[in-house]
Design brief:
heterodimer; A: alpha+beta; 6 helices; B: 198 residues; alpha+beta; five-stranded antiparallel β-sheet; 12 strands; 34% helix; 36% strand; globular
């Protein structure tokens, strides 16, 4: 195995590209990120590490706009993310310039995934160490979409997905609890999924909501309020479970 | 025969452009919008070679948008003007853009401003500017009647005087003009001055 994991362009005898798999490991160590698609809202949530007291948190935006109607969150190597996001932003404007139309979510996802794939098949480079969650509304049909890409360059559309640390737990939660929601319910579902793996509180989570009006980053106070609602609902459900048992 | 002019008033800037698209003796259309809204608080009135005009203004608009996504804040008017000048200068000795531009913008910190950028990459920050044959008349009218801190009504009156002068004294005067304004509330179309319907 040691002989087949040095260069990206070398397959191992059992058909693995080890560098790509190692890149996926880097993603698994990155912060948790979740995306949930509703009927009129798409929510992105990212875990924020609150241990950095002296850092100006405004300079670390983990959910970014690629264009008026497209947003991206990622897990993995943040420096690689910067490069990929820059290329995607240029492509959004370039597309507008050449065809006078904004990109569709699928187009820009295909572009980003294509870029990630190129770096798995070139000499002297390594793959991008990040998976992205890309959300947006189709500029003409208004249909909401959520896509995920990964270091191998594959992409697919999702109703809800998670990536980064403990993404399996979050995905399990979403599979159990997902249903078609809209507006505030979608935001709550995304935050509930994140709270499965992240310490609760507004300062540990960054949440952004995409609607047809555009991207809105939620304030810490707003997130705290929703977290409080969720905890109250959880407590009420716990109490309801205990109460009938007492009656019998 | 194309004409673009502009002026700065109290808390706003005005850009006026003709709206004719002409090819030798044929008028293709007389409702061509030559003042591009660059972003929420910038107007770019452009005159010159039609293909270059569209290519250059759209290219600048997309780059201004890209800057905003990359940096989270919009370009200042001065920065946009210098960017345009730089692009024109770079292309000048290879494949020049034959476009003359009047750039008007409103910045929260510095208020309204107007920039004169011609096709050989001259850049001047000015209170009033004009391009084309109509500039002979517009500049003279503005030199006589312009004063700093005009109100919107006074500036419109002056713009109308310039348009009237161009219409009466230029041999092949443009038929219609469009007026756009930018102030703290943003850049928007203000009105048209038509002699023909299109």
């Amino acid at each position: 195995m040691a002989r087949y994991d040095r260069a990206i362009t070398v397959f191992s005898p059992d058909g693995h590209l080890f560098q790509v798999e190692y890149a996926l490991e880097a993603v698994r160590k990155g912060n948790a990120a979740v995306g949930v698609r509703g009927t009129d809202t798409i929510v992105l949530g990212v875990e924020k590490k609150s241990t950095v007291k002296l850092q100006d948190s405004r300079s670390v935006r983990k959910i970014v706009s690629l264009d008026d109607h497209i947003a991206l969150a990622c897990a993995g190597l943040k420096a690689d993310a910067r490069v990929l996001i820059n290329r995607a932003r240029i492509e959004c404007q370039s597309h507008r310039l050449t065809v006078e139309d904004p990109v569709t979510v699928e187009y820009i996802t295909r572009y980003i995934a294509g870029l990630q794939q190129k770096y798995t098949q070139s000499g002297g480079v390594r793959p991008f160490g990040l998976s992205t969650l890309i959300v947006g509304f189709d500029p003409y049909t208004g249909v909401p979409s959520l896509y995920q890409t990964d270091p191998s360059g594959t992409f697919s559309a999702w109703k809800a997905n998670a990536t980064g640390r403990n993404s399996n737990s979050m995905r399990e939660f979403l599979e159990k609890n997902y249903k078609e929601t809209s507006g505030q319910e979608t935001i709550k579902l995304a935050i509930r999924a994140l709270l499965e793996v992240v310490e609760s509180g507004g300062k540990n989570i960054e949440v952004a909501v995409m609607t047809t009006e555009g991207l809105r980053q939620l304030e810490e106070a707003e997130i705290d309020a929703i977290v409080a609602e969720i905890e109250a609902e959880k407590a009420a459900a716990e109490a309801a479970k205990k109460a009938p048992a007492k009656e019998t | 025969m194309e004409c673009v002019f502009g002026m700065v008033g109290k808390g706003f800037a005005l850009v006026v452009a003709d709206s004719s698209a002409v090819n030798s003796i044929l008028v293709h259309k007389s409702n061509e919008d030559k003042i591009m809204v660059l972003d929420s608080h910038k107007l770019m009135g452009a005159s010159g070679e039609a293909g270059d005009r569209a290519q250059f203004t759209e290219y600048v608009q997309k780059n201004v948008a890209l800057y905003q996504y990359r940096n989270g804040i919009p370009l200042t008017t001065k920065a946009a003007a210098n960017f345009m000048r730089g692009e024109l200068a770079t292309a000048l000795r290879k494949n020049p853009y034959m476009v003359n531009i009047v750039l008007a913008g409103y910045d929260r910190e510095t208020g309204p401003s107007l920039y004169f950028i011609d096709y050989i990459a001259t850049l001047h920050k000015v209170d009033k500017a004009a391009f084309g044959y109509g500039s002979y008349f517009a500049l003279s009218m503005m030199d006589h009647h312009y004063h700093p801190n005009m109100t919107v009504d006074e500036a419109l009156k002056l713009a109308d005087q310039c348009i009237d002068e161009i219409r009466s004294r230029l041999v092949v005067a443009p038929q219609n003009f469009v007026i756009k304004i930018v102030d703290q509330d943003g850049a928007r179309e203000h009105s048209w001055r038509r002699t023909t319907k299109d």
